[in-house]
């Protein structure tokens, strides 16, 4: 059995399903983790690190390339550049979608709440 590797995390189940379907359309076997928890109570998403998109270890580079290119196309379509900053608690880099500007999110590294810059 091959090890599954998380290649992306999404706050919202719909986005995770979209990415999973996109990967499958490209011939990459993908599954979701924690989707049932988020489906029952989406407010738990930040607490558990969102819905995880997982692929086989051998497919990680291709999956990450597809996801990165998809996100870049979204930015180019005017959906806004991602907000990138360092966590005020652990100092590690974070990136959130432009619609999260001015909100409060959870650092995926240390689990602490962070204020997303305006």
Compile the SSE list and pairings:
Layout: E1 4-10, H1 13-25, E2 30-33, H2 35-40, H3 45-48, E3 51-56, H4 60-79, E4 83-86, E5 93-96, E6 104-106, E7 113-115
Antiparallel strand pairs: 1-3, 2-3, 4-5, 6-7
Describe this structure in words.
With 118 residues, this protein is of the alpha+beta class. The chain has four helices and seven strands; from the N terminus they run E-H-E-H-H-E-H-E-E-E-E. The longest helix is centred in the middle third of the chain and has 20 residues. It is globular, with a radius of gyration of 15 Å.
Radius of gyration: 15 Å
- In the sheet with the most strands, the strands line up as 1-3-2
Task: Count up the helices.
Answer: 4
Report the oligomer.
Answer: single chain
Query: Regarding CATH, which class of the largest domain?
Result: Alpha Beta
């Amino acid at each position: 059995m091959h090890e599954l590797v998380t290649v992306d995390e999404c706050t919202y189940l719909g986005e995770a399903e979209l990415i999973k379907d996109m990967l499958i359309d490209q011939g990459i076997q993908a599954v979701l983790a924690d989707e049932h928890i988020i489906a029952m109570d989406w407010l738990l998403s930040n607490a558990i690190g969102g819905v995880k998109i997982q692929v086989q270890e051998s497919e990680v580079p291709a999956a990450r390339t597809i996801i990165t290119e998809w996100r870049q196309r979204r930015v180019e379509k005017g959906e806004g550049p991602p907000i990138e900053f360092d966590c005020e608690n652990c100092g590690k880099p974070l990136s959130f979608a432009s619609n999260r500007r001015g909100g409060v999110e959870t650092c995926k590294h240390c689990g602490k709440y962070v204020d997303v810059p305006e």
